[in-house]
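[Meeting: bench + compute handoff]

Bench side (C.D.) handed over the final construct sequence. Compute side (W.E.) agreed to return the predicted structure before the next meeting so the bench team could plan truncations. Sequence as handed over:
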Amino acid sequence: MYKSNQLVKIFHGPQHPGITGNMSVELDLDAETIVNATTHVGYLHRGFEKLVERRTIPQAFTIVCRICVPAPAPNEANFARGIENLAGIEIPEKASWIRTMVLEMQRITAQFLWMAGQGGSLGLYVNPQWAVADRDFMLDLFEELTGGRVYHMYIYPGGVRRDLPDGFLDKLSALLDYYETRLPEYDRVFFNNAVFKKRAIGAGIVDPSTALKYGITGPVLRAAGYQKDVRKYAPYEKYSELEFDIPTATESDVYARAMVRREELVQSFRILRQIIQRMPKTGDYQVKLKNHHQFKIPTGETWVRTESARGEFAYYMASDGSEYLRRMQVKGPSMVHAMSLLETVLKGAQLADVAMIMNSLGTCPPEIER
């Protein structure tokens, strides 16, 4: 801590429970009121776009999941669909259903991790202990399905890497039953907690016009009253065949964003119930691809989008006809959420609310240093 021009300068993070990854924020304080904020993303993982461009398509597949460690599936889905668009590959029906299932399972794990961080940022430590433990039950299913708990490398160009294990859908259904019984407990301990409501209501307000100006997406945008979700307005995989709602709010504060995420968790349960009922019993899960050592895609370019738990993830991918991508560019929510928006919203806020506001915006720092 040091003083400059009558202000106190401190670094908030990167070890605070409300900090996503190793990101920190440099704060200029007048007493405990924030005058200026500057985000430092930490440089944990860097240069994904160039790493991908310098590797063959099969080699690049293992890199993209690290763009957002807690939620790799949306990146895998974007990469796979981009390659399929460029190569003219149509995946089997069953593979598309499995992908949709995996994306919603991933959304649930991301929401539990968000609840853990938000509870920790407020000192409500029962909540992170519960949420991390409950998230682990879904990671158990990911491990059975993909072989990995965090990095799955499962959604692959042409489909998915392997079929569903015997009894997998029954286990998923049983886990959803458990989650639905747990949600009232989270309401009691966290969402309806008087301390959380007192601190969160009216804090970190994002002006709706600012949300549009900055290109905000996901729960932050929906908490500002905009019913925007890629799964609805530009559906992919099997989302156009499923029934689900897009929760919104109008208060656009920390508490509104929390309640939007809570309702999105309920909608993920609803989507997965439908998938369990409609999953094809037979069929291929992967098309037969060319030899990986000779895998080349035609010249062209594509733009694909996936709705992650944090907001819209988009990939621009261009091919020159070789076994390498000529260009890949990643556009996700973290750049604007963690830098442009966070630095704006924190001005005038109190020091004690920094972690809570930061966590409410939903960021993944490696995505910024892509």
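W.E. noted at the follow-up: The chain has one domain: 13-149+160-284+331-368. C.D. will use this when planning the next construct.
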